[in-house]
Write a structure and sequence with these properties.
With 394 residues, the chain is mostly helical. It is built from twelve helices and ten strands. α6 packs antiparallel against α8 and α8 runs antiparallel to α9.
Length: 394
Amino acid sequence: MTAPRTDQEDRSLGDGERATALRIIESNWREDGGYTSPHVDTYPWQWLWDSCFHALVWNAFGDGRAVTELSSLFRYQRASGFVPHMSYGLSPQDAVPLWGVPGSSTITQPPMYAHAARQLAARGFDLPGDLVARIERALEHLWATRRAQNGLLSCFHPWEVADDSPRWDSWGDQPFDRFGSWRARKLEFVAALEVDGEGAAVGSSRFVVGSAAFNALVAFNLGELAAMTGARQWAARAWSLTDAIEERWDRELLTWVDAAAGEPPSTRVRTIDALLPVLVSQDAGHQDAAWAQILDPAAFAASFGPCGVHRAEPSFDPDGYWRGAAWPQLNYLLWVAARRQGRHDRADELARRTRAAALASGYAEYWNPDTGAGLGAAPQSWTTLWVVMGPGNP
């Protein structure tokens, strides 16, 4: 029988694990680009929400690269305020074959930059003078160009949130074929984008969805910007968007559902990202019901963090990319929600399971939620997020 570790040994082990996490994120740092690649071989470019999470990790280590990383996201911000989801700063022409413009993509991702900026400022980092102004312009652009009559903001491509989620199955061929027909369909969706003169998507002829997850993260970041600047307009927009999200609660399925023309069936598939409105919901009943699902072993609960898809859904696959596997950034976002709602036991448990998953998976991009077996690229930079999930953060 192994003797129990002493408190000193526990602290030493924790320090060693943090050192490993730091080595991983440092190994993916691109000094010439001022950003962290998710994985230098598999994902050499810069992704919007990945970099926001990387900035949070650098922040947890007290490293000034947190500010450099967050600032670099706006390298290809358009005059309109649009921020692309991918930047190809180290080789701008590589963007042209897919996106038709050099340097970046023409779609976006959830604007986690307001949350990251607030956390960096709270730690005492001096933010560049124009950074908050850039964030304001970015959120203003989303509000002006993406807002539909139902009050929700629209996504124009699955790559803008949750990639291969079963919520998009109504737009694809069945059975789902990730590397065949679905990959081809996503390229068709790129061709279907309506792009303005600056190279920013402002519409689509094939894919327009008011994603519950995307809208929750926009509302959350509007609130973060309001808290950081004290400007009432951002708080008012956060509340307005949250009200529109609450209208999408399904009392039978116990989830928020996406909005799309014709209400395609897959917009009601129960996924963990569709429960991200717990970040902003002000309805205690909705909050409690969502947390009950997250904590239910027959629904989402698992040993290494919540499953990506409800276990009862036909599309559930614990090894599947956005089809049931667990993701570190979703664990982190739920942890933030739990902390801010005073659900500290739940937050602590999410933190423990995320740390265990990072170690068991070899810091994999995502993992089997029941076994912790690593999936995707490894080691992945954003899986170091577990170091942020502790006392004193957010």
